[in-house]
Amino acid sequence: MSIKITGSGSYIPTEVVTNLDFARHQFLNEDGTPFPYSNEVVAEKFLEITGIKERRYVSDDLLTSDIATVAAQRAIADVGIDPETLDYIIFAHNFGNVKKGAIQSDILPSLATRVKYDLKIKNPKCVAYDILFGCPGWIEGVIQAYAFIRAGMAKKCLVIGAETLSRVVDIHDRDSMIYSDGAGATIIEETQAPGGILAYETATFAHDEAYYLYFGNSFNKNHDPDVRYIKMYGRKIYEFALSNVPKAMAACLEKSGLDISKVKKILIHQANEKMDEAIIHRFFKLYQQSPPEGVMPMSIHKLGNSSVATVPTLYDLLIKGQIENQELHPGDVVIFASVGAGMNINAIIYQL
Questions:
Q1: What's the pTM value of the predicted model, to 2 decimals?
Q2: Backbone angles phi, psi at 293, to 5 degrees
Q3: CA pair distance 123, 87, nearest whole angstrom
């Protein structure tokens, strides 16, 4: 028996937002003071550090659960299963449904329940629930699906990662330029084919690190203090990720029993190009090696950081040949890895 991703789907929002579109924003420091340089300089430095040229936002009429449903429908169609045979719908997000212009999140009923409703699944034994695990949420959902199947509690699971971060950003915070919207979904099931999930690693660091990402006030001191936005301590996150993610990936690889030479691709959370590159170099350095060319496919340049959606979206685009100069083949060994609010880290060794 193996437990594999048998189908995938994604939703790439239609609204393209380039770095130039931020030219009219008034970026402020945390204390509310203006930047000493122009937005053009901000955009140049931002591109140099993050690699993000543009990102995608959902249209005003769509919610996180809406785009998740589209990704789920595409994943179900990809493998050709009957939705009624799903045992679990596991939906990773962080902020629920936030309507355009609203200041309140809606998670009643859960977003997983809404997707089940939209899919018209009648089977009450198809259990639908949400998980909040920061950016590593989709990978954690896959780990949970794997555990359910290994335990004999399920045979087929739908795992979704979706977010509309454009609805929870402070337009006066330059970090808002990082975030984007998107949705990815996968079918996880027991198969007779070889490979699948070979090992996993997951952890929560919450002693000193719990509030590296948090909800905070706008940098514009004239804004309503009761309205909160996603905030982060970028330098602390960078140092934390660089120190801990390579170790988690190495521990996961050791559990799998495979040599690093077997790793063909690393699908890492699309958080920041420079950070991701540094993580991959640090990982291979643990084995006294340099990263092979093309080992880390990237989508961040055009899609930005859509949190839980980055890894499943990247996988879907890659498996369907939509990432330039990148491809996957049967038997290839892939590492999925992520880091995010919690602070949470996880990784999976997966063989196609």
A1: 0.95
A2: -60, 135
A3: 9
